[in-house]
Amino acid sequence: MKLIRLILLLLVLSIAVFWLVSLSPIDPVQAYIGADVMRVGPEQRQAIAEYWGLNDPPAERYIRWLSAVLHGDLGTSMIYRAPAAEVIAEKFTHSLALMAAAWLLTGVFGFLLGILAALYHNRWPDRLITWYCYTIASTPTFWIGLLLLVVFAVWLGWFPIGLSVPAGRLAAEVSLLDRIHHMILPALTLSLIGLAPIAMHTREKLLDVFASDYITYARARGEKGFSLVLRHGLRNIALPAVTLQFTSFGELFGGAVLAEQVFSYPGLGQAAVQSGLRGDIPLLVGIVLCSAVFVACGNMIADLLYRFIDPRMRRGEGAG
Question: Which of 12, 128, 203, 259 has the greatest CB tally within 10 Å of its CB?
Fold first, then answer.
């Protein structure tokens, strides 16, 4: 059933992208020509439009695209002049490394901060963490990225200003440390934003656990601090935190789009922006479908984890 809903969602998304791009004022021929616009005559512009099928009605282009997709072909990217599937695979590799690093940092530090805030409830660590989470949750991703860029790349010079590898260096000469060095600031940007909901959710869940009778009994026996959390609270707060972490794939992908723009990181987010600005429909639709599948995978993993760990979910009774 979920697979059918996912297929319907992808179908609706592809139709919506084709329809929205057809309403866009951007001339895809001019975007395709770029800086050579003065050297291209009307006949050549007409030939380009006919080659890419840009003069055909949107419905006809969509049906032609859908037919190709059913045969495993996402079309050809106008920007990169390569199969859209290959472009998406290459860009997704960069984005996946960035998002995986940010996702891990977010989960670990968000969870620890949530526990710390609950342990020191209504004291200065709790107030400081709560203030940080509320502040960062209302801060745009690009603003955090620009702030880190100015401080750590421009003023201090600790990290490169952008890109995923050093400029002007051959791919064979780029080491893993170079790639990690270039990825730190974008990953840190995503992590600082993403850990706020994990921390606040963990804090609230742990406070609920602390208010239960069995915790009162444990305290009466002399248990306190982190040992109390490890023995009685960790099991109750870990599952909701893990579930929330997996369902945050959508926010993670959206944040990656902005972070990649700020740091000129050549991932899927930057390709999505370029394809939208230049009317590259095959690439844009492919990226949208890829992102939808990515988010759906996160939700399915969270659902499977819940069902695996909580027997009540397997019996269809629900956790509540």
Answer: 259
